[in-house]
Design a protein that fits this description.
This is Stringent starvation protein B. It holds the Pfam family SspB. It comes from Pseudofulvimonas gallinarii. This protein has about 150 residues and is mainly β. It has a single domain, classed as SspB-like (SH3 type barrels), CATH 2.30.30. It contains one helix and seven strands; from the N terminus they run H-E-E-E-E-E-E-E. A four-stranded antiparallel β-sheet has the order 2-1-6-7. Strands 3-4-5 form a three-stranded antiparallel β-sheet, covered by helices on one side. Strand 4 and strand 5 form a beta hairpin. The radius of gyration is 15 Å and the shape is globular.
Amino acid sequence: MAEMTSNRPYLVRALHQWICDNGLTPYLLVDARRLGVRVPPHTVKDGKVVLNIGPNAVDRLDLADDTISFQARFNGVATLVLVPLEAVLAIYAMENGQGMVFPPEPSLSSDDEGRDQDPHAEGSDGEGDGPSGDPPPSPPPRGRGGLRVVK
């Protein structure tokens, strides 16, 4: 049987549409340490960032099969944000926390192990959290208790 592609991009698009259709605000929880993540450094906390991807918060939102990209303003400065789909940890409605938490996706190859962080990424300060042999961060807890409303 042929290996199927990831269902993550399809679920992210569907949940984004569902949240917006219900008049709520879609938020993405992103592992900012993953390779290819481009977010302003001041938005990253504990290696993660929460992004409002609602229609009133972003411009040119593209929920592609491999990357989420959009323009947003951070402290009044227009910024291009890039999030590889494997860096998406969850998508949920800000108002009630309903959505989905995603399990971590494996690296594309064994060469990628230990390289969660792009030292040239905008959100990176270039300092590692330890030797490259450190295990990846543990996934967020499962269930309703894993997400909280951010105001």
